[in-house]
Design a protein that fits this description.
By secondary structure, this protein is an alpha/beta fold. It folds into two domains: 265 residues, Aldehyde Dehydrogenase, Chain A, domain 1, CATH 3.40.605.10; 180 residues, Aldehyde Dehydrogenase, Chain A, domain 2 (3-Layer(aba) Sandwich). The strands form five sheets. It has a seven-stranded mixed sheet, with helices on both faces. It is globular, with a radius of gyration of 22 Å. The mean pLDDT is 97.
Length: 475
C-alpha cells in the first residue's frame, strides 16, 4: 500500500481578498443586496465577504448589457469579437494556477481536478467559440444569423468557473451580451473571471456578473429586457423557470439533473471499466449532473466487478482539496451533505446493502466517504433520485434488452455509459438509450466541440459545438 506524504498547494496563490464586489458596466461596484459570506467547505472558515445584487441592481446590469448590445457588441464584426474572446482564453491560461486554487478553496473539489479539468476546459470553451465568431454564416443557421440580444444566465455551484465559460463564450461569439448570476455558495471564480474580462478590455456592459441568492436569479430570468435565458441547476428550479417563461418570446435552454446509467457487459475489460465507474461517480465528489450514479452490471460478472470496485474505491484518498494527492474533496455545503446522508439512510432503510470505504475523514469540514450500494431495486429512492454525492447504486441485468429497459427507467435523460468490447453493441445501445450523451468505454469526458444536453427532466437544448450556437442565434 502506498503511503502518500502531504503535497499541499499553497493557498496564497489564490490571491484571496477579504471583499469582492459585483461587476456591472465594466466596473466593480457595491451591490445594494445583503452581503454574503462564502465558506471553505473543507474547513468551514469564511473565505471572503461578497457584495450581492438587489432587484434594482439586476435592472442596472440588464440596462448596461442592453446599451452594450445596441451600441457596440452586436455591431462589431465577428473577427473583432473573436479577438476579445481569444484574449479572455489566454488570460485564463495565464492565471490558471490562481483560478485552480481559488476554485478548490471555494468549492471543495480536489486541486488536481480544478487544475487539470475545470480551468483548462474553461479556457478551451473560449478558444473554441472565438473561432466561431466570424464564421456564423457557415454554421448551418442561414447566411447571416443574428444574435438575440441580452442573455440572462444562472449557473450552479458544482463547476463554477467552467459553467461560466460554458455559458458566456457562445453568447459572446454569437454577438449577444450577458448578465450572469453565479451560485450563492461559489461566487469567487466568476468574479475573478470578471477581472480577466476587464483585463481583456472587453467593452463595458458586454458581460455583467451579479452575485446573489435564488431571488436574484429569479429576478434576472423574469426581467422583460432579457431575450435569452440559460439555466443549469436543479430540475425543480428548471420547472419553475419554464412555467415563468411560458408564453413569452424568450429563448430558453435548461440543463438540469440526471441519474445516469453506466452499463457494464460481461465482455467488458473489467479493470478498465472499474476506473471508468470510479471516475463516473466519484469525480468532483459526485457533484456532477451527468454522474454515472446507477451502475448496471451483467449478472454473470456482477460479483467479480463489485469485488474489484470495492478494492479500488478503498484506495481513494478523501481529505484536503488543496493536497495534490486527494481524490475526493469536500461536499460543497452542509445543506448538500445533509441531503446525501438522508438519501443514504433511506437506501439502508429500504433494504439495499451498503458498503462504505473505511478511509479516515477530516475532523472539520463537510466530507462523506465513498459509498457503494448493492442489491438495489429500481423502486428504491437511491435508484430514482439524484443524490449528487459520492454514492453509487448497483443493479444487475441479464440481457441487452433488460439493460436498455432499466437504463431508461428514469425521468431523467442526460447521459449514459456502455462498457463492452463489441462496437456493434455500443451502437445498438446508444440508439436505444434515451440520453443526450452516451460514452463508450469511458465516462465524464467533455469537449467544447461536442454538444451537451438532455431529455425529459434533464432539460432541453444543447450547449457546446456547432449545435450549441443555435441557442444564442435568432434562427
Amino acid at each position: 500500500m502506498w503511503e502518500y506524504a502531504p503535497a499541499p498547494e499553497s493557498r496564497d496563490i489564490a490571491n484571496l481578498k477579504p471583499n469582492y464586489r459585483m461587476f456591472v458596466d465594466g466596473q466593480f461596484v457595491e451591490g445594494t443586496g445583503e452581503p454574503l459570506k462564502t465558506v471553505n467547505p473543507a474547513t468551514e472558515e469564511v473565505l471572503a465577504e461578497v457584495s450581492t445584487a438587489s432587484k434594482e441592481d439586476v435592472d442596472k446590469a440588464v440596462k448596461a448589457a442592453r446599451r452594450a448590445y445596441d451600441r457596440t457588441w452586436s455591431k462589431m464584426p465577428g473577427s473583432e469579437r473573436a479577438k476579445y474572446i481569444y484574449r479572455i482564453a489566454r488570460l485564463i491560461q495565464e492565471r490558471s494556477r490562481e483560478l485552480a486554487v481559488l476554485e478548490s478553496l471555494d468549492n471543495g473539489k480536489p486541486i488536481k481536478e480544478s487544475r487539470d479539468v475545470d480551468v483548462p476546459t474553461a479556457a478551451a470553451h473560449f478558444f473554441y467559440h472565438a473561432g466561431w465568431a466570424d464564421k456564423l454564416s457557415y454554421a448551418g443557421y442561414g447566411p447571416d444569423p443574428k444574435p438575440l440580444g441580452v442573455a440572462g444566465q444562472v449557473i450552479p455551484w458544482n463547476f463554477p468557473l467552467l459553467m461560466a465559460a460554458w455559458k458566456i463564450a457562445p453568447a459572446l461569439a454569437c454577438g449577444n451580451t450577458v448578465v450572469l448570476k453565479p451560485a450563492e455558495t461559489t461566487p469567487l471564480s466568476a468574479l475573478v473571471l470578471a477581472e480577466i474580462i476587464q483585463q481583456a478590455d472587453l467593452p463595458p456592459g458586454v458581460v455583467n456578473i451579479i452575485p446573489g441568492a435564488g431571488d436574484i436569479g429569479a429576478t434576472l430570468v423574469e426581467h422583460p429586457d432579457v431575450n435569452k435565458v440559460a439555466f443549469t441547476g436543479s430540475t425543480e428550479v428548471g420547472k419553475i423557470i419554464q412555467r415563468q417563461l411560458a408564453g413569452t418570446s424568450k429563448k430558453l435552454t435548461l440543463e438540469l439533473g440526471g441519474k445516469a446509467a453506466n452499463v457494464v457487459f460481461d465482455d467488458a475489460p473489467l479493470d478498465q471499466a472499474v476506473e471508468g465507474i470510479v471516475n463516473g461517480i466519484f469525480f468532483n465528489q459526485g457533484h456532477v449532473c451527468c454522474a454515472g450514479s446507477r451502475l448496471l452490471v451483467q449478472e454473470s460478472v456482477a460479483d467479480e466487478l463489485l469485488e474489484k470496485l470495492r478494492v479500488r474505491v478503498s484506495t481513494l484518498r478523501v481529505g484536503d482539496p488543496l493536497d495534490k494527492n486527494t481524490d475526493v474533496g469536500a461536499i460543497n455545503s452542509r445543506e448538500q451533505l445533509t441531503k446525501i446522508q438522508e438519501l443514504v439512510e433511506s437506501g439502508e432503510g429500504e433494504g439495499a446493502s451498503r458498503w462504505t470505504s473505511a478511509c479516515p475523514l477530516p475532523d472539520k469540514g463537510f466530507f462523506f466517504a465513498p459509498t457503494v450500494f448493492s442489491n438495489v431495486s429500481q423502486a428504491m429512492r437511491i435508484a430514482r433520485e439524484e443524490i449528487f454525492g459520492p454514492v453509487l447504486s448497483v443493479l444487475t441485468f441479464r440481457t441487452p434488452d433488460e439493460a436498455v429497459a432499466k437504463a431508461n427507467n428514469t425521468p431523467y435523460g442526460l447521459s449514459a455509459g456502455v462498457w463492452t468490447e463489441k462496437g456493434s453493441r455500443i451502437l445498438w445501445m446508444a440508439q436505444r438509450m434515451r440520453a443526450g450523451v452516451v460514452w463508450s468505454n469511458t465516462f465524464n469526458r467533455f469537449d467544447p466541440t461536442a454538444p451537451f444536453g438532455g431529455y425529459q427532466e434533464s432539460g432541453f437544448g444543447r450547449e457546446g459545438g456547432r449545435t450549441g450556437l443555435e441557442a444564442y442565434l435568432d434562427v
